[in-house]
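Long-time lurker, finally posting.

We've been working with Adenine DNA glycosylase (Actinomycetospora aeridis) and I want a structural starting point before designing mutants. I don't trust myself to interpret raw outputs, so I'm hoping someone here can both generate the structure tokens and explain anything notable. Sequence follows.
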Amino acid sequence: MGTTTSATTAATDGATTLADVLVPWFRAHARDLPWRRPETTAWGVLVSEIMLQQTPVARVEEPWRAWLERWPRPSAMAAAPASDVLRAWGKLGYPRRALRLHAAAQAIAADHDDVVPADVETLESLPGIGTYTARAVAAFAHGQRVPVVDTNVRRVVARAVHGDAEAGAAAARDLADVEVLLPRETTDAATMSAALMELGATVCVARGPRCADCPILDRCAWQHRGRPAWDGPVRKAQTWAGTDRQVRGRLLDVLRGAPGPVTAAALEAAWLTDPGQRARCLDSLLVDGLVEPLADGRFALPGEAGDVG
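Top reply, 14 upvotes:
Generated this for you. Predicted structure of Adenine DNA glycosylase:
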């Protein structure tokens, strides 16, 4: 793996920094995503960041618009039952994110006057909000000068700064590597964070990078090293068919599609292939708080159990 090029060295080319190139490139070429528009509130940015975790942009745009139309402020969502939130989450996957966002909305409404906090530390204190999401909201919603590091950003830094084909495992240096690339001016720093992310998502992609279209091709350490192949561990592609994730999704589909609690038989019919797997997945949904059991043997989404007479 490349170790001879430091972030500070790679960030500059004489008096020109990577930010001098990437900030105007982003302003000219960035995708027109609704959560990037000036009128988007900090709540809208927070919702987008939660939805975009492990979910492609194309699958998020319409649910995001519907979500903000239905719940334009944290207090609006905070007042909704968790069952409504899970139904609205639909097919976005990883539904625990919906419950975490619901809990965060309740905390923002109750403890922060319905205003999404601006500083990283306060954001991290919200239920279900981790380091990445807190920094993304601070930067993209509030224009703070904080490094924002996701998989795309780590790949760009690995190639452009360290000369490696892949980023490898997350490391303590990641935040420092990105912070040194940020301009001192706050607005440009937030734009640079977005630019690094955009470059990794659209040009410096994992497979088949479009190097000919890269605005920093001439200063990319990976290019200067002759684009050496990655010699570290390779992540295996995730499968879907037959996994516990698929079974959990099938069970939740039954509950989301029903107007109220459902019978055990209805859940059993959702996955006949492996009854043991189905039982295990139902147990995991109960543990995660995504499903609640009723005394009569039926099952419900969170909050619906108390509505049953």
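Before you design anything, note these points.
Confidence is low (pLDDT under 50) at residues 3-13.
The first strand starts at residue 12 and ends at 13.
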